[in-house]
Write a sequence for this structure.
């Protein structure tokens, strides 16, 4: 039984449809990452669940009960905002205490509750500060503490790590899943960063152009993206997409890719054009000619965290991004050079060129 | 001869009745012809002040900036032959994107045909061909930033200065644009200095990176230098996503084995990292004076999962997080009272809460002085060094 | 750019002094006049040398004005009190009415919302005299002429639009997320309005109240027509100094100085809120 259900929820602002009949079921204790590019309606979705906006159509149920028409204060959930939304005229303590005060708890209970959650988030030493005296990281933790203090069963996190620096964001990315499991809450986590979505979500719901285009586990979404759109959203560097025309060959059907003929695992219906997707990490590079290897021009090597990104130029003038480990990249030249790439048919994702949808049965 | 030399360059801001601020403190660096240099640091580290002094928007309090042998300190910005892309884009709103890019070239009195070709080339590189006829206010932040970059790259100046050149780029374009820009800069031998707070950007583009903190230059070197041979603990804990794992330890000299005692969080128990004397270099052994405070560092992707006593000390721990990001896996291990981060290529199966052993290969360990924070050794074995 | 030479500092000082002199000279001159007799004031050419006298102030406070033509009764202190009652009550009433209204205009988009807000602002456009003539006859009918209530009611034309429009802007500047967060915490809308919106808009409210007070204080024409002697504010009361035997410049000056004092005190008291500003550390989205 799902704890939170969105049932064909639609929201319009004036003429513009921000959410178009979206449905989602979140199990109790589950963390679902709502992931997508900016302007996709993620933030509006959270505000509908929180009750500060009302849907035009559809139903929202929390714990089996429809909450349409209920004001936000009756929904008893926790929410953390991207811009922290701290009360500037109140100390960190009073900010965090606000949900407890709404329950009319005694001052002693409030103190105890605030101190417990402040310790958990390591902000016990700044409780007397006003928000303006807090660093961005401390503001972020204060805002998180406020959303957690009441031990809500449903937690809405609206891109809470957006405004903190990279190092802190990384630390929180490691720390948050454990904290959320500890709170035993059902969580919706909105983010624009696919790494956060993959790291934090039990499932990811990809929201683009006002509807969910795929809802699945991180592994399934990364390995079996529903469409080229989803495939482009996950992965850094971005997946390589190339339009090809399938042709009959001795092995069945094959495609001509950068002058190399590759057999396909699936038989596409008809001879319609396909889009081939190749994840950069699946391209193997060697410095010497190999039997199957395809000679390409190496244009640039750009390190990316613990890996390196290679910009390759194929014979037909196309660009291709590959990634490899630092150790492998260390052997490559700074400027232009010739390298050979190996592609395995197993690593190809195939999409319909017209609809962009993935052809099933061909997963790496 | 270097394209640009900063010689003890200092910038002091003095507001009456307030203590003076040393925004930039005796920075020495050289930029070679055609080199791409990144100024990296968090906000307020002095990187932007440095860039603005090079551009001529700020007076130099003391020290000298030279282009070749020519002293720049007193020259007006326009006389320095410098191209700049501003963080706030600073596009000319009444001009089309095409004319914004062409502006600097036409001012340099290049023929119209050459300018058009150049604009077309740059626009293709930065994927702004389809917006050349539009006006800046109608564009997204990412498009404006690409235009501003295009304007700076189109010119052939002595030095190209880029202030946070890629902070607003669309994530899907970032990797390919970085690669193309790097290719373009190298191919046209454009001397470039860019400012960024994003180390990924710095590491991706720069030949050498100047890491700044509190107005001081912490280290100036290649990306590999910063990652494999950080000069001090600041650089070690700043560079890398995730950055280096650091253990605060106390040295204990022994007969066959030198020991680094890691104090756990509660402060009571100690966990020993044993360094066999016959495996470490004499220089390292000499620095392990009894009772000396030392910090031990290891980069996340050098941590080995499993017990390999031949490689280096082995620690027991518990997996607290396992995050697969598609092409790599980040694992958090609670060990020695702290969180150790390990990164692996591909997907690694390691269930949360399971007990594991991790090995810290001696060849990949970094040793820092616990008091001065300065690096002492990179790689502790006789066989090789950290990489 | 940062370096400041001694010369530029002197030039800056001189320029500032000139501007200051330009704006403050009239007040300074009136201040001097208030300690002079009419003879000293009317002397040609004017001079800064005179024997100061407190007669003007004594006359105002005692309410007895000695002129060449005899002794006149003036109710200046009563006028001052009237001014205070009228301005303060008008502002307080306007605050009570305008703050919730401004909040509603800022937060809720409802049908005709903009039109209503604009209509309220347009009260400020109409020449007061145009309204006053018909208003006088109505007020006579319902017995509101020469009452505090009637005047305070009419003063709303001055104070209400001002407070409404200024505080509305301040409410709009508060991030909606902050109020939403408070609602989600479990507080009702009224509590959110009182505990979050009003405290955060306080600098704006203080500024608006101060301005409204000054405008109400300085109003002349409403009171001239709708009030008789016992309800008159200082602005109208000062007409009494235009006597049959000439204009009493000394007393006018003294009356001016006395009537500046309440506004001045109010301005200084509100200053803390005026400078504090809104940006108490919230991150702008």
């Amino acid at each position: 039984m799902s704890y939170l259900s969105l049932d064909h929820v639609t929201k319009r602002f004036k003429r513009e449809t921000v959410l178009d009949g979206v449905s989602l079921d979140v199990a109790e204790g589950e963390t679902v990452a709502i992931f997508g590019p900016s302007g996709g309606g993620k933030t509006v979705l959270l505000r509908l669940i929180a009750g500060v906006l009302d849907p035009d159509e559809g139903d929202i149920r929390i714990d089996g009960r429809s909450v349409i028409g209920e004001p936000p204060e009756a929904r008893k959930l926790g929410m953390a905002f991207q811009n922290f939304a701290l009360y500037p005229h109140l100390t960190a303590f009073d900010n965090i205490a606000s949900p407890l005060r709404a329950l009319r708890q005694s001052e002693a209970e409030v103190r105890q509750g605030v101190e417990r959650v402040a310790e958990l988030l390591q902000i016990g030493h700044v409780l007397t500060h006003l928000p303006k005296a807090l660093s961005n990281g401390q503001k972020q933790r204060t805002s998180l503490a406020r959303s957690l203090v009441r031990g809500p069963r449903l937690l809405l996190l609206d891109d809470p790590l957006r405004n903190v620096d990279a190092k802190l964001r990384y630390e929180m990315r490691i720390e948050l899943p454990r904290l959320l499991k500890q709170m035993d809450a059902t969580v919706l986590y909105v983010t624009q960063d696919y790494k956060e979505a993959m790291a934090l979500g039990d499932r990811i719901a990809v929201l683009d152009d006002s509807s969910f285009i795929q809802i699945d586990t991180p592994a399934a979404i990364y390995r079996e993206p529903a469409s080229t759109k989803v495939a482009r959203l996950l992965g850094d560097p971005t997946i390589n997409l190339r339009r090809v025309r399938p042709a009959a060959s001795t092995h069945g059907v094959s495609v001509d890719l950068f002058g190399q003929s590759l057999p396909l695992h699936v038989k596409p219906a008809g001879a319609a054009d396909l889009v081939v997707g190749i994840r950069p990490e699946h391209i193997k590079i060697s410095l010497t000619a190999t039997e199957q290897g395809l000679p390409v021009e190496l244009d640039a090597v750009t390190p990316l965290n613990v890996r390196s990104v290679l910009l390759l130029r194929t014979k037909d003038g196309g660009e291709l991004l590959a990634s490899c480990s630092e150790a492998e990249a260390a052997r490559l030249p700074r400027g232009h050079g010739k390298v050979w790439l190996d592609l395995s048919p197993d690593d190809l994702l195939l999409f319909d060129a017209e609809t962009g949808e993935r052809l099933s049965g061909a997963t790496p | 001869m270097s394209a640009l030399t900063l010689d003890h360059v200092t910038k002091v801001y003095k507001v009456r009745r307030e203590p003076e601020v040393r925004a930039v403190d005796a920075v020495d660096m050289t930029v070679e012809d055609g080199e791409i240099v990144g100024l990296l640091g968090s906000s307020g580290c002095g990187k932007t002040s440095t860039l603005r002094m090079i551009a001529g928007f700020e007076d130099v309090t003391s020290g000298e900036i030279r282009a070749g042998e020519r002293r720049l300190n007193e020259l007006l910005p326009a006389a320095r032959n410098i191209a700049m892309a501003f963080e706030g884009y600073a596009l000319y709103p009444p001009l089309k994107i095409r004319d914004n890019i062409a502006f600097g070239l036409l001012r340099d009195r290049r023929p119209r045909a050459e300018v058009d070709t150049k604009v077309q080339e740059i626009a293709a590189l930065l994927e702004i061909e389809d917006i050349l006829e539009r006006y800046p206010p109608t564009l997204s932040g990412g498009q404006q930033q690409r235009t501003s970059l295009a304007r700076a790259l189109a010119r052939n100046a002595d030095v190209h200065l880029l202030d946070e050149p890629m902070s607003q780029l669309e994530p899907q374009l970032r990797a390919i644009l970085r690669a193309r820009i790097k290719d373009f800069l190298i191919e046209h031998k454009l001397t470039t200095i860019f400012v960024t707070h994003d180390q990924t950007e710095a590491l991706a583009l720069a030949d050498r990176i100047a890491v700044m903190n509190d107005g001081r230059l912490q280290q100036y070197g290649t990306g590999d230098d910063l990652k494999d041979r950080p000069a001090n603990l600041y650089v070690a804990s700043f560079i890398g996503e995730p950055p280096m794992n650091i253990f605060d330890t106390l040295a204990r000299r022994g007969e066959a084995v030198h020991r680094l005692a890691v104090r756990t969080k509660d402060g009571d128990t100690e966990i020993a990292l044993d360094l066999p004397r016959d495996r470490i270099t004499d220089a390292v052994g000499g620095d392990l004076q009894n009772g000396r405070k030392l910090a031990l560092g290891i980069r996340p992707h050098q941590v080995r999962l499993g017990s390999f006593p031949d490689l280096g000390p082995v620690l027991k721990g518990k997996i607290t997080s396992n995050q697969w990001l598609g092409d790599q896996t980040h694992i958090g291990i609670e060990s020695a009272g702290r969180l150790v981060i390990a990164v692996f290529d591909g997907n690694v199966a390691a269930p949360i809460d399971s007990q594991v052993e991790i090995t810290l290969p001696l060849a990949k360990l970094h040793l820092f002085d616990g008091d001065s924070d300065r690096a002492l050794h990179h790689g502790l074995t006789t066989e090789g060094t950290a990489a | 750019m940062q370096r400041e030479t001694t010369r530029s500092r002197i030039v800056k000082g001189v320029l500032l002094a000139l501007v200051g002199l330009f704006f403050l000279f009239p007040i300074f001159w009136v201040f001097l006049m208030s300690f002079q007799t009419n003879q000293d004031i009317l002397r040609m050419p004017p001079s800064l040398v005179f024997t100061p006298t407190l007669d003007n102030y004594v006359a105002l406070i005692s309410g007895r004005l000695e002129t060449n033509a005899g002794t006149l009764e003036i109710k200046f202190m009563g006028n001052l009190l009237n001014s205070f009652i009228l301005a303060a009550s008008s502002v307080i009433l306007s605050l009570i009415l305008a703050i919730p209204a401004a909040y509603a205009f800022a937060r809720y988009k409802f049908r005709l919302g903009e039109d209503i807000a604009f209509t309220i602002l347009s009260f400020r456009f109409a020449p007061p005299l145009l309204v006053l003539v018909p208003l006088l006859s109505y007020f006579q009918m319902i017995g509101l002429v020469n009452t505090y209530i009637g005047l305070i009611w009419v003063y709303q034309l001055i104070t209400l639009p001002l407070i409404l429009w200024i505080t509305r802007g301040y409410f709009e500047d508060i991030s909606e997320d902050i109020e939403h967060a408070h609602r989600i915490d479990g507080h009702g809308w009224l509590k959110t309005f009182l505990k979050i919106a009003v405290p955060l808009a306080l600098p704006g409210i203080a500024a608006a109240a101060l301005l409204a007070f000054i405008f109400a204080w300085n109003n002349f024409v409403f009171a001239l027509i709708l009030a008789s002697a016992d309800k008159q504010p200082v602005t109208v009361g000062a007409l009494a100094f235009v006597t049959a035997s000439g204009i009493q410049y000394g007393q006018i000056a003294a009356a001016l100085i006395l009537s500046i004092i309440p506004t001045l005190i109010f301005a200084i008291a509100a200053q803390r809120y005026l400078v504090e500003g809104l940006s108490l550390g919230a991150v702008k989205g």
About this structure: Chain A touches chain B through 47 residues (CB under 8 Å). Chain A has nine helices and 21 strands. The first strand of chain A starts at residue 2 and ends at 13. The radius of gyration of chain A is 25 Å.
